[in-house]
Amino acid sequence: MDQPSFEGRPLPRPEEEVFDQGLAFDLETMNRRRALRYLGIGASAAALAACGGTTDSASTSSTSAVGASSSSSTSTTTSTTASGDLTEIPDETAGPYPGDGSNGPNVLTEDGVVRQDITTSFGDYSGTAEGVPATIELTILDMANGNAAFAGVAVYVWHCNRDGNYSLYSDGITDQNYLRGVQVADDSGKVSFTSIFPACYSGRWPHIHFEVYPDQASITDSSKAIATSQIAIPQAQCEEVYATTGYEQSVTNLSQLSLATDNVFSDDSGATQLATMSGSVDKGYTIALTAAVDTTTEPTGGSAPK
């Protein structure tokens, strides 16, 4: 039997979860991510230089390309730099528990996955995720169309439960599919999910995964995702929630982490992925993020263990 691997690398502790592979493995993951990001920046700069563009002209070209149609010849210019006050949402790994068919089960083929309330399991499964109530709000903007609201895109959201475990994958809840669901963006580019506040598990800053698809018809094929990223949850609200019953282990886990050392958000401390928060433990929280998606750039995230 082949040794289990993650992103092409053998797992030193194949019997453990990916996030329990040890510090050396985590550091290599972080360094590989940084190297790929730097290579991407270098490749973009080289392409501009080959076209004879100066720094000023390249900046002008990038700005004008954002407002152009995605079919325009200038739309190949990268928009990983800021456009006005917006920056393209970083591509991030979908991780080992995506449930999108790229690593095992595919919840996106199931009837009922398009739903607003993701606290309960659906279809052949039953069960409810317990925890502090949370509403997840995402606003998707179309950078290739002048930062307009990206109406009609399908957004798949998933995250761990109060214990730090993922439905469909973790021991004891492989027969659950809660905390997973899809919404189609309205005319404002917005989607909203009723959920619970996720835990902080060992080795990862508290986060929520999401994938953006061109439309609902595309969701059954993970390769059609036009963006794969994560929402980082601010520390202050995490500390408030983790002081409540049921989140005890998250207190210890959070104390050992920071956004600057997390192996996903450390590139920029989650600058464009840090949620805006409102609410309270008693009334529940709203976790909101605006994500700018550029369909003229090649998605690089979403890789899962092989």
TrEMBL record:
Biased composition (Low complexity): 53-84
Keyword Oxidoreductase: yes
InterPro entries tied to this protein: Intradiol_dOase_C, Intradiol_dOase_core, TAT_signal
Signal peptide positions on this chain: none
Pfam families: Dioxygenase_C
Domain Intradiol ring-cleavage dioxygenases: 126-203
Gene Ontology MF term list: ferric iron binding; oxidoreductase activity, acting on single donors with incorporation of molecular oxygen, incorporation of two atoms of oxygen
Annotated region described as Disordered, given as residue ranges: 53-109
SUPFAM superfamilies in alphabetical order: Aromatic compound dioxygenase
PANTHER family reported in the protein's UniProt record: INTRADIOL RING-CLEAVAGE DIOXYGENASES DOMAIN-CONTAINING PROTEIN-RELATED, PTHR34315
The protein's name in its UniProt record: Intradiol ring-cleavage dioxygenase
Organism: Nostocoides jenkinsii Ben 74
